[in-house]
Design a protein that fits this description.
Elements lengths: L4 E3 L4 H6 L3 E3 L5 H6 L7 E4 L8 E2 L4 E4 L4 H6 L5 H8 L4 H6 L2 H5 L6 H4 L40 H8 L3 E6 L3 E6 H4 L18 E7 L8 E6 L10 E10 L2 E10 L6 E2 L1 H7 L6 H8 L14 H23 L2
Parallel strand pairs: 1-3, 2-3
Antiparallel strand pairs: 4-5, 5-8, 6-7, 6-8, 9-10, 10-11, 11-12
Helix pairs in contact: 4-8, 10-11, 11-12
Organism: Amycolatopsis pigmentata
Protein name: FAD binding domain-containing protein
Keywords: Oxidoreductase
């Protein structure tokens, strides 16, 4: 780790007026600094800022500095969000990691984290060895010839499914709100640009619009080991079931794409259909549309469909059990 200056701004205004890299839980930034992937000269500890709180009076509002474990345990949080959080990292990390930091965590691609190898995210124009190299854990959706790294956040998948928004503050541009689905950017020709966060901006809040039927929701995560592991495939699903039919649905997936991936075709295929396995299987068969598997990760196409189906079936069982 290289030397750096650490300061702790007392107010949001002071933080936005300062030049530096924001530090909250540090569970991503410190790791990257140890690897020399991130080399900030000035780090701003923002843990003292008033960016906490969980408010359920208007949908769900979560302060960016709320810790993952606290949000997961809050009774007003939709199940899909709670389950995504509880299946992330370890209990110790969840106690430290912030909601805003989780949404901004960097990919776990081994080439990105190894400064001895090329990586277009780390050094634009240097190449993407994963395209032809070891790519079992890489993306099959939203990829380009310049990057095939998966997005790491479980929470972001759940939030994208529920049409969440992030509030961003800047000393120069004030406050703006961006849909989380639009906040993340597919790599295209510029994989180093991962999101719509502008220089000096800070995530201050996450807002999930009120959706009462999202109480019927779940998050299914498939991984190589039971805990403390990133998703090979995951699915966030919420269903509105009326008279044994699907009135509405929200579906997003992770572990298989370069950004949290909303499956609008699957949602449309579910609406109006009987809440039975046959309908779910037909809808889940559309989950991998547009997939571009690489040499080692073709299995993700089938796994993705099965993950979505498993989430739908699990959720239906939960719904019937609650009646």
């Amino acid at each position: 780790m290289r030397p750096f200056e650490l300061t702790a701004p007392a107010t949001v205004e002071d933080a936005l007026a300062s030049q530096g890299t924001f530090l909250a839980g540090g569970t991503t930034l410190v790791d990257l600094m140890k690897l020399d992937v991130a080399t900030p000269q000035h780090v701003l500890d923002i843990n003292g800022l008033p960016l906490r709180g969980i408010d359920t009076s208007d949908g769900l509002r979560i302060g960016a500095l709320e810790r993952m474990s606290d949000v997961a345990r809050h009774p007003g949080v939709y199940p899909v969000i709670s389950r995504a959080l509880l299946q992330s990292a370890s209990q110790q990390l969840r106690n430290m990691a912030s909601i805003g930091g989780n949404l901004l965590q960097r990919t776990r691609c081994t080439y990105f984290r190894d400064v001895a190898t090329p990586c277009n995210k780390r050094l634009p124009g240097s190449g993407c060895p994963a395209v032809s190299g070891a790519n079992r854990n890489h993306a099959v959706l939203g990829t380009s010839e310049h990057c095939v790294a998966t997005h790491a956040s479980d929470l972001a998948v759940a939030l994208v499914a529920l049409d969440a928004e992030v509030t961003l503050a800047s000393g120069e541009e004030g406050v703006r709100t961006v849909a989380l689905a639009d906040f993340y950017r597919q790599p295209g020709r510029t994989p180093e640009v991962e999101n719509d966060l502008r220089p000096g901006e800070l995530i201050t809040e996450v807002h999930v619009p009120r959706l009462d039927w999202a109480r019927t929701s779940t998050y299914v995560k498939v991984r190589d080991r039971q805990s403390y592991e990133f998703a090979v495939s995951s699915a966030a699903v919420a269903l509105d079931i009326e008279d044994e039919h699907v009135a509405d649905a929200r579906v997003a997936v992770g572990g298989v794409a370069t950004v949290p991936w909303r499956l609008t075709a699957v949602e449309e295929a579910l609406r109006g259909k009987p809440a039975i396995q046959e309908s779910f299987s037909e809808a889940a068969s559309l989950a991998a549309e547009g997939a571009k598997p690489l040499s080692d990760n073709g299995f993700k196409v089938t796994l993705l469909k099965r993950t979505v189906l498993r989430a739908l079936l699990e959720l239906t069982d939960l719904t019937r059990g609650s009646r």
